[in-house]
Amino acid sequence: MQDINIYQILISYSAFLIAITFHEYAHAWMANRLGDPTPAKYNRLEFNPITIIKAHPFGAGLVPLIGAINGIALGWASTPVNPYLVNRKYSIRQAERLISIAGPMSNLILAVISSFILVVVSGLYMRYLQGGNADDVMFILISTIYDLSRFSLSINLLLSFFNMIPIPPLDGFSVLSSSLDRNHPLIRLIIQYQQVFFIFILLFAGRMLHPIISNVSMMLIELMGHLSPF
Fold first, then answer.
1. Among the listed residues 58, 19, 38, the one whose alpha carbon sits nearest the alpha carbon of residue 148
2. Among this protein's residues, is 96 annotated catalytic?
């Protein structure tokens, strides 16, 4: 039986929890910004992962924890919003589109931040490794930040790209359906076969997204390398 790496589990789950909290907060922030009082009513305008876990003990608690034991934490959550309550200067379809895209975009932003931290910490890691002690507290701290930012980069890119797949109940479908006519043939096709599409995505999305995530990760790291002082 494979040994359980408690450290890796904690790092992976922490990265996921930060990513999903950031994602759901972005939905709530955008809805509130547009005038929808629903997120405030459910205390979703606080950047608090405990609130997410309490609302989704299975999707944000148990499932990602089991995933972390197997290598990478993944799960789900949702934020209560009501596009019909937004300020009247926005149409309902505009509100749906903006609220939906806010989540994946927030993960993309967090991925960029993670890549920059990863590059900076990598430079510090190499410098410290040459003259430091592996048991030193500072070295352990740098190593922990390095691992957390590495997991954070991958998880945030995965959440961003996966959620933009235009299949219900993912954000990508809300963006697509609010951009096209409700009776558009593509929308009707997706709704008619949504269960089939979703099962296909669950089975093959990992394989399809892995090369994309790897290439984007390398691109971000290379780009941030030009900005890093190390």
1. 19
2. no
The domains of the chain are located at: 6-227
Instruction: Write down the pTM of the prediction.
Output: 0.91
Out of 24, 46, 96, 222, the active site residue is 24
- Per-residue pLDDT tens over the stretch 132-161: 655 677 778 888 999 999 999 999 999 999
Single-letter code of the amino acid located at 82: N
Which residues are within 8 A (CB) of 40 and not within 5 positions of it... i.e. 6 or more apart? 32
CA distance 59 to 44: 17
**170, 103 contact by CB (below 8 A):** no
Q: What's the alpha-carbon Rg for the chain, to the nearest Å?
A: 19
Taking Cα atoms as reference points, which of 152, 134, 154 lies closest to residue 143? Answer: 134
